[in-house]
Adenosylmethionine decarboxylase
Amino acid sequence: MHKSLHILADLYDCRGDEKYLTKVSRVKHKVLQMVKRAGFKIVASRFHKFPPGSNVTDGGITGVIVVSESHLAIHTWPEKGFVNFDVFFCSYSRDNSEKTRKIFKEFSSLYKPQKVRRKEVWRD
Amino acid sequence: MHKSLHILADLYDCRGDEKYLTKVSRVKHKVLQMVKRAGFKIVASRFHKFPPGSNVTDGGITGVIVVSESHLAIHTWPEKGFVNFDVFFCSYSRDNSEKTRKIFKEFSSLYKPQKVRRKEVWRD
């Protein structure tokens, strides 16, 4: 059994298409596509759109995607151009760490953050 | 703005009620209760039951619970008595780190693991 990689990332000052911070359909389509292309079967996905906060910007979104014994989670704050992103793929039957890193890279490239804090945690 | 606490835990050799490893309704009820009691509003929850693997035991479950800009994720492997648990509460408007630790403790007490690997990650 391989160790499983969980990447937790905070993306700051995102300068990609703003719709990735605010539009559920846009983010969902892209992320599901990445996960499927990597060869994973999606068990379920759930996205939620928040109303605008006390400022004038459009509200953020939260999404979770469930893959067998694995998950992705996205939380966006358009008013700060900020995103939390989690991707965790279980490596029980095969080593999925490179796929995990690839999806992180693809996801990040949508948002074009000017700064990233990324943590890799190895789990059983 | 406070830092937000994300706890990632691997629970080994779980000796609590076996139903927490295999029964969606049992786990869902308990976890939603903990989250509500802590004062959080649940946006969505999604659970999935896996069929038994190549051995004779009942299949595991995967569940995600979405709370505003926060999430919990659970993956169980009954055949190994093993559980991955994630709890992340955004502390944007108030410091939720103690609630995060409390929910981890409550969750863990259901499973009675003989060994825990727990990582605390502070995020923006």
Summary: The interface with chain A takes residues 6, 8, 10, 12, 43-46, 48, 50, 60, 62, 64, 66, 68-71, 73, 75, 77, 82, 84, 86, 88, 90, 92, 117, 119, 121, 123-124 of chain B (CB under 8 Å). Chain B is about 25% helix and 45% strand. The mean pLDDT of chain B is 93.
